[in-house]
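User: I'll paste a sequence; please echo it back and then give the predicted structure.

Assistant: Echoing your sequence first, then the prediction.
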Amino acid sequence: MFYDDIIVGNFISRPNRFIAKVNIKGKEKTVHVKNTGRCKELLKDNTIVFCQHFNSKNRKTDYDLISVYKGDRLINMDSQAPNRVIHELLLSGKLFNDVEIIKPEFKYKNSRFDFYVITKSKKIFIEVKGVTLEDNGVVLFPDAPTQRGLKHINELIEAKKDGYESYIIFVVQMENVKYFTPNMKTHPEFGEALRNAKKNGVNIICYDCKVTENTLEINNQVDVKLY
């Protein structure tokens, strides 16, 4: 996926989950933060960030925060990007080679899964989770407790029992990581639910991404360690 009109800036502050103050060309600008997670390890004083510029009277801000440097590692922070790159992967045929129908945001029982995919031989539900939390090359999810995430896991198990294929795909919004593991310190119930899902036949896979200032692309499959 490609972003046009990317502008470099320096992070100043984050007054709330939805906006940040960024120094762009010497002026303080209010920027929309699409990722409402904590991201405290990313958004630090004066760190380099990249923002997408918009000219629209329908927006409250003229910028979206897209990516940030953590040391020399560029991390995409766009919470909508993981679904977009998985959609691209599905269209490419690299995930399933016989896709006939792709339906985003498909309702099943009490959940709305990111994708419902029909191939020549299978009916598949996919839930996508973006990962931006990294510690010495190990990537973790979630960065805060997620009851919504638990609900999705449990209903993917139910879908599997009902005869559907079920997938949880973690999209690591950075490159060159060691492995993925659930964040047991932050939300141990989520890690236990992932283990239970795997035991019940839910496919749990993870990809890292090639990240540039204005692109994001699925790269390599990453090892998943549930312990």
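The radius of gyration is 18 Å. The longest strand covers residues 6-16.
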